[in-house]
C-alpha cells in the first residue's frame, strides 16, 4: 500500500509538477524518479513478503522484515529532514524563482514554468508585479501576459506602462502563495509520511513474529 502511494505520488509529480521543479531547486532534481523507483521496489518486496508468508519461510520473512526496517528508517529521516529544513527549501525557492523572473525570456523551461505558475495561482512576480520591473524582459516587452487577470484586455503597450499595468495584472506575489501552501499542508504531508512509515513498522514486526512462530513450530515438529 505504501509503495503504491509513493509510486502514484512520483508519477503525479513527474507529470504535473515537472515544469515547476526547476523553480524549486537550484539544479534539476530527480525526486519524482526516486519516488517512482522507491515505490516500485516496495511493491516488489511486498509481493516477496506475500510469497514468503505463503511458503512459510522464516529466512524470507526475516529478509522482508530487514528491508522494511531500512525503508522505515529512510522515510523517517526524509520526513524529519524535510520538516527541519523547510525554511531552507523556502529560501531556495525564493532565490531560484527570483532568478527565473529576472532572466525571463518567455521561451526557456524556467520561463514557461513561471508563466504556468502565475496563470494557475493568479499571482504576479516574486512579491508583487513590481518584481518584473528589474527583469531583462520588461524594458522591451513589459510585464508578461501571464500576470493579466483578463487576457482579452492585455497588450504589451499597457504592460510596459507603469501607470496602466497595475490595473491589469494580479497584485499578489507568487512566493507568498506557494510558501503559505507549503506551510498549510506541511502537517498533512508529514502525517501521510509518518503513516506510511508506521504501517511498514507494523509489517516489519508482524513478519518477525510470524518468522519466530514458524521457526518454533518447525522445532516442535522435529
Automatic annotation (TrEMBL):
<keyword id="KW-1133">Transmembrane helix</keyword>
<dbReference type="GO" id="GO:0005886">
    <property type="term" value="C:plasma membrane"/>
</dbReference>
<comment type="similarity">
    <text>Belongs to the tetraspanin (TM4SF) family.</text>
</comment>
<dbReference type="Pfam" id="PF00335">
    <property type="entry name" value="Tetraspanin"/>
</dbReference>
<keyword id="KW-0472">Membrane</keyword>
<feature type="transmembrane region" description="Helical">
    <location>
        <begin position="31"/>
        <end position="51"/>
    </location>
</feature>
<dbReference type="InterPro" id="IPR000301">
    <property type="entry name" value="Tetraspanin_animals"/>
</dbReference>
<keyword id="KW-1015">Disulfide bond</keyword>
<dbReference type="InterPro" id="IPR048232">
    <property type="entry name" value="TSN6/7_LEL"/>
</dbReference>
<dbReference type="InterPro" id="IPR018499">
    <property type="entry name" value="Tetraspanin/Peripherin"/>
</dbReference>
<keyword id="KW-0325">Glycoprotein</keyword>
<feature type="transmembrane region" description="Helical">
    <location>
        <begin position="63"/>
        <end position="85"/>
    </location>
</feature>
<feature type="disulfide bond">
    <location>
        <begin position="124"/>
        <end position="147"/>
    </location>
</feature>
<feature type="transmembrane region" description="Helical">
    <location>
        <begin position="5"/>
        <end position="25"/>
    </location>
</feature>
<dbReference type="InterPro" id="IPR018503">
    <property type="entry name" value="Tetraspanin_CS"/>
</dbReference>
<feature type="transmembrane region" description="Helical">
    <location>
        <begin position="186"/>
        <end position="210"/>
    </location>
</feature>
<comment type="function">
    <text>May be involved in cell proliferation and cell motility.</text>
</comment>
<protein>
    <recommendedName>
        <fullName>Tetraspanin</fullName>
    </recommendedName>
</protein>
<keyword id="KW-0812">Transmembrane</keyword>
<dbReference type="InterPro" id="IPR008952">
    <property type="entry name" value="Tetraspanin_EC2_sf"/>
</dbReference>
Amino acid at each position: 500500500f505504501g509503495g503504491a502511494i509513493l509510486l502514484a505520488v512520483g508519477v503525479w509529480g513527474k507529470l504535473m509538477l515537472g515544469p515547476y521543479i526547476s523553480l524549486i531547486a537550484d539544479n534539476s532534481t530527480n525526486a519524482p524518479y526516486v519516488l517512482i523507483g522507491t515505490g516500485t521496489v516496495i511493491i516488489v518486496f511486498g509481493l516477496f513478503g506475500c510469497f514468503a508468508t505463503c511458503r512459510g519461510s522464516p529466512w524470507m520473512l526475516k529478509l522482508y522484515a530487514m528491508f522494511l526496517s531500512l525503508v522505515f528508517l529512510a522515510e523517517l529521516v526524509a520526513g524529519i529532514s524535510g520538516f527541519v529544513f523547510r525554511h531552507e527549501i523556502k529560501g531556495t525557492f525564493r532565490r531560484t524563482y527570483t532568478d527565473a523572473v529576472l532572466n525571463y525570456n518567455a521561451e526557456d523551461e524556467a520561463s514557461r514554468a513561471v508563466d504556468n505558475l502565475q496563470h494557475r495561482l493568479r499571482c504576479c512576480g516574486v512579491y508583487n508585479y513590481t518584481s518584473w520591473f528589474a527583469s531583462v524582459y520588461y524594458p522591451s516587452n513589459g510585464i508578461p501576459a501571464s500576470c493579466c487577470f483578463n487576457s482579452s484586455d492585455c497588450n504589451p503597450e499597457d504592460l510596459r506602462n507603469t501607470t496602466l499595468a497595475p490595473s491589469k495584472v494580479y497584485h499578489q506575489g507568487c512566493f507568498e502563495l506557494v510558501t503559505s501552501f507549503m506551510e498549510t499542508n506541511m502537517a498533512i504531508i508529514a502525517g501521510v509520511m509518518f503513516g506510511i512509515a508506521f504501517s511498514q513498522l507494523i509489517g516489519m514486526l508482524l513478519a518477525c513474529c510470524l518468522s519466530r512462530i514458524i521457526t518454533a513450530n518447525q522445532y516442535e515438529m522435529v
